[in-house]
Amino acid sequence: MAKTDTKTASLDRHGLSDDQLREILRNMLLQRQLDNRGFQLNRQGKVPFALGSEGHEALQAGAAMAFHRGRDVLAPYYRDLGLAVGIGLSPYEIMLSIFARAEDHNGGRQFPNHYSSKRAGLMSFSSILAAHIPHAVGAAYALKYRGESDRAVLCTCGDGTTSEGEWHESMNFAAIHKLPFVMLVENNQWAISTPLSKQMAQPEIWKRAAGYGMPGRRFNGFDPLETYDAVNEAMDRARSGGGPSLIEGTCYRYLAHSTDDNDMTYRTREEVREERKNDPVPRFEAILIEHGVMSAQDVEAMRKDVLRETNEATDAAEAMPYPQAADLYTHVYEGAWQPWQ
Amino acid sequence: MAVSSTSAASTLMNNVEAVRATLYEAMKNDDRTVILGEDVGARGNVFLITKDFIGEFGERRVIDTPIAEASIVGIAVGMAMEGLRPIAEIQFADFIYPAFNQIVGEAAKIRYRSNGEYTCPLVIRTPYGGGVRGALSHSVCVEALFYHVPGLKIVAPSFPADVKGLLNAAIDDPDPVLFLEHKKTYRLIKGEVPDGHYTIPLGKANVLKQGTQLSVVSYGLYVHWALEAAQNLEAEGLSVEVIDLRSIRPMDKSAILQSVEKTRKLLIVHEDNKFGGIGAEISAMVAEEALFHLDAPIRRLCAPDVPAMGYALPLEEEYMSSPAEMAQAMRDMVRF
Amino acid sequence: MATTITMPQLGETVTEGTVAQWLKRVGDSVEKYEAFVEVSTDKVNAEVPSPVTGTIREVLVKEGETVATGTPIAVIDEVGAAPANAPSAAPAAPAVPEAPPASAAPSAPPAQTASSNGARGNGAGAAADADAVLRGASPAVRRLAREHHIDIRTIRGSGTNGRVTADDVLTAARMGPSAAVGQAIASAASPAEAAAAPPASKAAPPSGTSTYGEPIPGTIVPLNQARRIIAERMVESKHTAPHAWSMVEIDVTNVWKWRAREKDRFERETGYKLTLLPFFMRAVVESLAAFPLMNARFTPDGIYVNKDVNLGIAIGLATNLVVPVIKHADQLSIKGLAIAGGELIDKARRGKLGVDDLAGGTFTVNNNGANGSWASAPIINGGQAGIVTMETVVKKPVVRDDDSIAIRQMMNSCLSLDHRVVDGYVASGFLADLKRRLEKMGPDGAL
Amino acid sequence: MATQSKTPLKKDEPSFERHGLTDERLVAMWRIMVTHRTLESRGFALNRQGKIPFASAGEGHEAVQAGAAMAFERGKDVLVPYYRDVGLALGAGLTPYEVLLSLFGRAEDHSGGRQFPHHYASRRLGIQTISSVIAAQLPHAVGTAYAMRYRGERERAVLTTFGDGCTSEGEWHESLNFAAVHRLPVVFLCENNEWAISTPLTRQMAQPDVYIRAAGYGIDGAAVDGMDPIACYAAVKRGLERARSGEGPALVEAKCYRFLSHTTDDDDRTYRSREEVEARRKDDPVPGFERTLIANGVISAEAAEALKRSVLEEINAATDRAESMPYPLPQDLFDRVYADGWQPWRS
User: Fold this and answer.
1) Do B67 and A161 make contact, defined as CB atoms within 8 angstroms?
2) Which of A83, A234, C49, D179 would be a feasible disulfide site paired with C33, CB 3.0-4.6 Å?
3) Which CATH number fits the domain B206-335, given the four candidates 3.10.20.580, 3.40.50.920, 3.20.20.140, 3.40.50.2300?
4) ipTM for this model
5) Highest mean pLDDT among A280-284, C29-33, C77-81
6) Is A337 helix (H, G, I), strand (E, B) or coil?
7) Chain B: touching chains (3 or more CB pairs < 8 Å)
8) pTM of the predicted model, to two decimals?
């Protein structure tokens, strides 16, 4: 769990411009706002389900900044709202997913936050943990096979997923073939109710890198800039033929796993309150203000703008129609789908 | 129904409470019993079925596993081979596929491949089924993927009292049992559950409603809907018999045949998709055993042949049948 | 405008929720997305944010109270509702977003076409299966027909599109002869009604079961129209016409031989089977000529003696009986009677009898023998003077006039008569005449 | 947390640190190796004679298996092997006759002639039944260890084995991770023979050492010369003792080599050169350990010859006896599907 001192926070921009820094903050604010909106809509009985990613904002905004739009491929998991927005999905698209409307990328078939967008280079994935990692490795293999040396695959998962056999199989394969693949673990300490201590016997996932013969690195996932640096380094190495990396960003899951979960059954308010002290969003606001990248008023205006955008996206998406019953039968196979021919 | 019941009294509970009460009893009565699965500990399972178990029975017997389904089942197989009575939980049936080899290739073959020297008394519990807005990965029916497998037993109760009796039987069973619990019935279905220990033998169906004009065979959530439809049809003067299979493998052949030979018509209703589903086996069996009693083609009312129900409500509704749809099918069959 | 807030479904399998605490009281103002109530379920505890900005008008559920998801829990008076919010203003079913007009589509035709494309293995799909099957009888029907020696083609189906059901077969097997007469009454008494009867029985009750189907103990088997008419006519005939009964034993050995010699050629030439019936009918019409009062009917004004001899034949069918009539039977030879009878029986089995076929009978013949009956007391077809039966033919040792004993083929013939029209004297004369004529027939001669 | 006890991998001369093994036990260990080797070639011979359809081969694994077997405590520990563990099975108490019953698929075989050759199971000896599915046995080993720990059977531990190819399986990872989280009494012994059928180690993993993965799980890891039976004995013994004393699992990697094809159905000429195989034959542990024992005066050359002869005679007799035994009956096919009869339909 990343401890960081808010007061004397330094600003190592790792070559990022003021605009990029502001973009990172806006992404963080937007992610939090959209996250909350999902929970709110559920509590209003308007959507049956929503997932939260509060606490992942810095990690995802920083990682998104290292992603080359239109070139790289993202294979995320279901807690990556910020990454999705960071690589180009609009709040409206997020809301379509939450409302399961016909216009949604998946035509309202998938759970919320299970995005897919060829345009954005975002691979489709299921709710099954680690099932997407072999896919990501396969995609990386394809990139290498076609000699697309300027492209790499960014794949994310939580700490719990590292226990899956497919995680291991994928890491090993990526290493053997030196694939342009970056395994970014968003270690938020909790797999629904299972703490990291019950997930693995030693707490540092990055240490497994050596066993596969690939570089590993651990970084503070509450710091978007350190995150950017770690992800950027790994992606650059992948793009330049340096092979895969296993990088681990530490953060914390502030909300329950989902709207179906009550985290107070397995962890204490105190623990969460303690972690809230390191909340990356206000922390990064403070840093940008402290270093004159933005004024307090600028931040306030940005927050208002984000809320407006979220409200508009919510209303617009809600007003869209559901898919039709007939849509259940489409895209089963190419062409006719009856089992009897 | 209740065999060897030690008490006449009963308690009203829903299916979650019935599973919970039965597991609790099993943990209390036999310290060889351990429960392992994702989030079964402090969280008490995502449906709160094992709530507070870890406090009472401790972490050695209520094991929060890493997210690794193949090893959840595989480790339980090892425990069973070495004399424990593990109850493995797959959090959602949709997550069971990584464990497919451990269930089909290992658990179901331990006794056979060791020529009886090793056995695998193991219960694998998993919530399945739709109607809960579970989308592609929280609503599948998996029974047809497993009912082809000799060495494995499959149970799918629908009523709290059956849940208790059959789960007790599954736990006592000397062979691996896949115990399917329908999510939608978890809190929707309430019923009186006899107190005390009792078992319901696997492979015994339950005739929920007598009828003379049509036999309806089902299991899981649809049993309740089929029953509702059949009862409503009484008003139209239609006499429909409803059979709850309760266990899918072994399956109660005589109950099905007796009913079909009486009514001469068979409608099979299940939530799983039709092609290669449980209904296919029942149809084949009845065609083999009772063809000359049939006065109408056997009919199966099942899910369409698509990979899953969608998340959006219309997609789920289109995938699932409804009591009204079932009633119409029953009318058509009786009038045929 | 007012917005009703319902208990949200907080969790996949949750069906109810408990109001843990009201964070706002009646009259309090609330912002959109501001929490106003805390709800707890057995899965989660959650603060519910308001869908609108406004003031709490009503609180419908007390703290600690548990209600099903979707139950209204509060009403909020909305202020300055933005149009975009309008859809969400109406009460929301739990977990179901308000359906804006366009999203009503799921229940629209596309859905139907989709689900009725056979994919579900129901609806149109099954209907198609049915059509194929209706071309043949079901396995159960075939089995039952075989077991009861019944020709399925002679049964009128009560199932969909006239399909012969297993119950139809069982009914046909169970049909008693006496019903024939009842139906005969139904048919003959009033041509119109009689003609209506068979179609009526074709239109079986919606349940699809035959009225004559296996009776369920403790239940009422509903009447179809044919049954009702038969019942009425039976009662009417029994009440209005005082029945008298008589029986003779007839030696039909020679007729039998004659028939045996002729039947193959006859069937070859005409396509109809040659039974004992036409010989019997021939004898009957000759006796009716000799005893015209037997071919009459009772009226308040007196006894009307019919000009023509129109002979009714009772024919049992699966679901009912019909009594088609051979007009001017007295003008037909045995062969003619055989053909005319054959045609009518054929028509009856194909359900092709018309009003004319059923109307105008003056006397009725009922062939019980087929069913092995040895004696019966038929009920007179209302409006006629009598009805005569052919019972089963059995070989018996018989003492001849010369006291010799011979094995002969004997048949009983029973007569019911309307005692208002004739007395026993005439009736026994008629029977004796019938007996003499039959015993004179054969073993040689032309049909 | 992970302590790497690196045993020096000497290729020239096998080490002769006895690690407390008496002369008798050293000879017993070598006898296992000789019996193992003889049975391996017997399996191939019977196959080439057309007497049995199949045999898999463990030549080159004699040292690691004999060494591990000496560390295995019969009647207490549980062995969860894989299909190349003839030597381990013998060391755990299985007789050559039982091995040959398995090769011939006779009714008397532990699996009643159901299983492939070398898929042994014996409750008496604590050898668990396995399938041919790579890594499927590892969760079983972990579950077994959990059962021991759960019942507080402190003096017991589980020894489970696998090849280098197995380490790529998800269940391998899941098993090590779970065993680590619960500190279970289980030793994972990797018999790294550098070949997974035709796949060389370089295509199996990006770096050559299996044991260093132990660190990623927070368990003890060690590598030993798999051609040195004493070194293997020491490493496995250490692992099992740590396990029994509650110090949790260990990952032991024994570097050996597969001299023969994968099975009688495989021809290794298609994927590796004779030169490579011949070069590695120089390290053949069976004659190697014989030399060591003679050189160190543990056994005389004559006694060694006598031992080899007696082993051969024993195996010849066992072969004839096993071959003369009947096959299972057709109706045996229906036995033991369930405890209570096998029909899926109930009436």
Assistant:
1) yes
2) C49
3) 3.40.50.920
4) 0.62
5) A280-284
6) coil
7) A, C, D
8) 0.70
